[in-house]
Design brief:
5 helices, Jelly Rolls, 6-stranded mixed β-sheet, globular, alpha+beta
Amino acid sequence: MKKIIFILITIINSSIAVGQIRQLEPSIFNYPDLDPDTLSKYQALSDEYNQILLDEIPYHSLTSRQKTLFENELLHSEGPYFTGELGCSWYCAVGPLSVTSTSQLDSTQIINYKPENAHDFDLRTAWVEGREDFGIGEKIEFEFKLSSHLKLTHIDIFNGYSKNEKAWKENSRVKVFSLYINDNLFGYLNLEDTFKGQRFDLGSLGGDENEKLVLTLRIIEVYKGEKYMDTVISEINFDGTGDH
């Protein structure tokens, strides 16, 4: 009888533990716009802005159009593929010490697919897992050093190969990530099949007794690409509190 009671208690406790695992759903950004005409327009404005800087044209000598560019300089200086903050942000205080992955697709002569590409604020670059299948089980990991007043609150993911809509459709995307915090399962990120940015609320995460915080994302399920099995992540960015 005692054995039966012990088994029942174990089952109940296991069910409670499973129920505590978070299923996280995203909120969707209205960014980026991968329409070729839109990208071309914003790239042209960015190129024009940077050419003004290169030519060192004094402000009083600028045309009214060029002055308008400078009034929106934070937007045009970075271009249409930029995913970072336009101004001061949590990154003013902290950022990942390292970005690593369990695999990456082999580089070509002109392009690489290293994990650092997933945190360079540029949608034209990407981390691509290196398995011959869809990369189920492959991981990408971010390590932070967070002092006691710094907390990580959100993770932003740009899923798939977002350099253009054709590449996004042809390559596979993540459907579900499992998220580990310092090797402990935190929950599951259920990504939508969109090239728009997706924000997940993580609560308020701090470092351990050594100020260490490690986020590990493991591919659990994918949306299959129209042409390639390679699973791609263009950007993974973060936000938090305690930056001032």
